[in-house]
Amino acid sequence: RLTRPPFPPGPNPLPIIGNILDLTPKELWLTAFKWARTYGPITHLRIFNKSLVFLNTPKAVFDLLDKRGSLYSDKPHLVMAGELCGCENMAAFTPYGDRARRQRKLMQKAFGPAVIPRYHGLMQMESRPFLSRLVSSPLQFQDHIRRYAGGLTLLVVYGHQVKSNDDPFLNLAEECVGILANRIASGGGIWPVDIFPALKYLPLWFPGASFKRNAVIWKAKMEEFVDRPYEFVKSEIKKGTARPSFVSTLLEPPKLFSYDASTDDDDSSSSDHDSSFSSHNTKASQDTTTDDHDIRWTANSMYSASIDTTITTLSHFILAMVQHPHVLRRAQAELDDVLGTGGDGLGSSPRSAAKRLPTFEDRAKLPYCDAVFTETLRWGVPVPLSLPHRLTQPDTYEGMYIPQGSLVFGNIWAIMRDPGLYQDPEVFEPERWLARDAIEEEAGKERDPRAFVFGFGRRRCPGTHLVESSVWLLITSMLATLDIRKARDEKGVEIEPVVKFENAVFRTPSPFVCDIRPRSEEALRLIMEGE
Ligand code: HEM
Fold first, then answer.
1. How much is the pTM?
2. In ligand 1, which atom is closest to the CA atom of 312?
3. Which residues bind heme (predicted)?
4. How crowded is the C-beta side of 518, counted as CA atoms within 13 Å?
5. Which atom of ligand 1 is least distant from the CA of 457?
């Protein structure tokens, strides 16, 4: 003790309980940001005998979470979330080891970069109904995004097609992701029982054991969330009506899903969902040690992780457009130039809307739209403290001691709001990404929000490549066809959107009032085509 280096700096702990009173159940990233400004690249807190470490600079996150990934890729064993609430098998909670590697392999098969082009057709097919739902009930935009994101993953992972916002699987997912993110993981996910595991033996009726009574209810919900869509696929397989999907292809022995990278190029234009899997099913996978349990939980992990993150990102995009009409107009002008214009100029835009919806082939010609997407990720910071990693051995970094078992948070919020990295970081300014080679140059690469907002090292988000395509397509499709602006009251006065962030893990804006409508009659026709 006397010879080891000091802990990283941080707020003074109280005797025994440490810094527990410094933690906030909501928006912990705002407090962690203040610590970063006060204490520098690393902040250390102690909760009873557990260390919490916040890494506040790109150098600190890359040095530790990336370069020392073999030490920093475990996940905390949380008695409350994992054992009592039954989440220990979800990918984001799986300890680093064989099971985590098997799960990530499966996710790579479903959503690795080379596979994504196979879903392009499906995304394009789903984006038009999304726009049409948005136009018919714009105030429910978060419901529509939920349906799009959940629907896309449900179709790809379970072969289930969502037909309404009231879909039972979508409702179940919303309820469970809400419980997980805002109840179980509230305040960083540390409960007294995580500090004193013996508390788990308290009988349910015992005063102060309400956490256990809640855990019983939440665990039952989580199991239902994992099992119901999975059992659905099994029964569809039995009936012979299963759509090809990630789960069905892994479950049907003669059609084990095998991903063969050499076949990517010739299939990239595939435009129907079925071909994402079925055309590649003939070759049985030789290395499949996957069992029912792995498939069940991996499928659920991808599904549950895709919904809130996408809702959050796209809600930030809509908010940014409402608050920055000049950005919307510039992006629309770029799209009009590339897609061609026509029509009557119903909307307030200087032009009258694009002639067709954007496709992935247009992307290279739309640098400003790409800049809007990049800036949305930076400005919105969907998961501001990432998810905690656990350190498996004691470590020393720049003369500071980080104890074994520390929970380590990449403080993405502090990085995305660092004026040393991004001038006027609070300002939504896509132009910052247009400076020549802003992202390609070495210095630019280090600033690219994609290097941060999806987490770090061996636990980095496996959904990044899907998001890169699906969110880009939705953003550009909305820009091409819709005007997004402030709503007006009955006197015609603009209503400023009021936004609150009341979450513990995701930075999801509360629903806000805005006006979303087609840019022109022609845009409306384009949206409604095929309805
Ligand atoms: C804009 C959207 C998204 C953002 C910002 C995002 C961000 C993140 C972050 C910050 C993490 C924690 C990484 C870490 O521990 O270092 C994560 C983990 C994860 N994400 Fe995403 N994500 C998004 C969309 C998705 C989608 C669409 C999927 C599924 C298709 C997905 C699946 C997962 C899974 C399974 C994990 C846990 C990985 C592990 O612990 O090994 N995410 N994500």
1. 0.87
2. 1
3. 461
4. 23
5. 16
